[in-house]
# Entry
Amino acid sequence: MLVELRSGIPNYTNTPDFWMKPPKNSQEALNLIFDHSANFKPGESYEYSNANYLLVTKIKEKVLAIYNFQCIQKEIFNPLEVGAYRHDSRLPKYCQIPPGD
# Structure
């Protein structure tokens, strides 16, 4: 349901605090929605939520014991022989690709 955006979990970018005091890491982003109730019961509707993708990433990192961008490098870029890619340093730290990974 997370990937299908049918979880009902609110989008943290819809909270006023996201824009007034942007989160510095993924935990701060998730903290913005912890006190909010679900927008609907899981599976009953569809609504875009960045929190869904952030939670999928955190689950994947925990289960695979590898950072998201390292996984992308290993499973996608390396097989495609993509030697270099760039990231935008203006993105929050939790969205950036660590140098050298």
About this structure: The CA atoms of residues 12 and 32 lie 6 Å apart. The two ends are 30 Å apart (CA to CA).
